[in-house]
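Morning run. Coffee first, then this:
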Amino acid sequence: MRPNIVTEAGVQTRVGQWWNAIPFLTSSVVVVCGVIYLICLLTGYDTFYEVCFLPSAIISRFQVYRFYTAIIFHGSLLHVLFNMMALVPMGSELERIMGSVRLLYLTILLATTNAILHLIIASLAGYNPFYQYDHLMNECAIGFSGILFSMIVIETSLSGVTSRSVFGLFNVPAKLYPWILLIVFQLLMTNVSLLGHLCGILSGFSYSYGLFNFLMPGSSFFTTIESASWMSSFVRRPKFIMCTGGNPSSYIPTYSAQNTTSSGFSTGNAWRSLSSWLPQREASNQSSEDSRFPGRGRTLSTARDPAAPAGETDPNLHARLLEDSSSPDRLSDATVNTMADSRQVPIANAAVLPQTQGRVTAPEEQIQKLVAMGFDRTQVEVALAAADDDLTVAVEILMSQQA
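And here it is:
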C-alpha cells in the first residue's frame, strides 16, 4: 500500500499559479515589454534613437508616436525585470478595481500626460532666457518607470495608508513616498531620467486629486467597448476583468473623496454603523437545565401556574411534579390539571403550542404502550402530559424518575 506522501508544489507549479493570478492587461504589458526586449537583444538593436522619448525630435519633426513607443522599450535585462516586477502588484490591484479596459485607457492617458509634462518642462529648461539646460532637450528616455511612478501615487492614495516602507529599511509618510523614491533612484542610479520620473509623479497626483476627471469617460463608454464583437475573444479570457465588476465610477477615489469617508461610515464600519441603528431582538432568558429532564425544548421551568396571574410562571412547578410523580399516592387531580394547562403556554424555546380543550390525560393507546413496558399508569399519565404526548420524551422522564 502506497504511503501518504505530502510534497510541496514545484517551482513550475508555483510560477504557473503566480502567473494565472495576474489580470489580463497587466500580464499583457509584461509579455509585450519582455518580447520587445528579447527581439532587441536578438537583433542587436541597442541605440533606441528612433523610438525613445526625445523632446527635440518631437518638437522639430512632430514625432508624437514617441509618447508611447518609449514606455515599452527597455535598455537592459535588469531594467525590464525591475520595472515588470514593480508593475505586477500595482497593476494587478488597479486592474481588479477599475477593470482591464479602463486601466488600459488610464495607462494611455498617463503616458500622454507624462510626455506632455516632460516636453513642457524640458522646453522651459532648454529655451529659457536665463540659463539654458540644452541637454534636457536631447535626452533619450525609455522605459515603463514613468507610468510606474504615476501608479505608485494613485495606489498610495487609493489604499489610504499613512506611511510606506522604503525597501523595508525605514518608513516615510505616504504622501512623501514617491518623492523619496525619486531621490533614492536618482542617487543610486545615475543613468535614470529625472524628468521622466518627476512627470510621472506629477501626473499621478493630478489624477488622484481629480484634475483629469473630465478626460475620463463614464462607465457606459467602457461597457460599450467590452460588448463589441471584436472584443469578445479578449472578454472570454478568464483573467479579463470587466469594468462593471470594478469601481462604479469612472475613476479611483481621490484624496478629497477619501476624506469624506473618514467619519465612521467607511467601508469597514458601514455594516457596524447600520446594525447599531436596527432594532435588536432580545434573547429569551432560559433557565438552567435539570439533569432529570434531558433536552432543552421540553423543560417545564417556564410553565405557568393556573392560579397565578397571566404572564407569570410558577418556578416550583418542576420540583412539585417530580415530588408528586415519585409517589403515586400523593398525586392529586390538581397536579394533573396543572400539567394539562402547562402544555398550553410558551415553553423554553419560545414556541407556543396549540391549545387542546377537553383533554386532560394522554390518549389511551399511548398510556397502554407505556404501561405494558412496566411503568405505573399514574406516572405514565403525568409523564405523557409533561412530554406533550411524546412517547420518547415520556420514556426518558419515567426512566429518570426510576433512576
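Confidence is low (pLDDT under 50) at residues 245-315, 325-360. Good start to the day.
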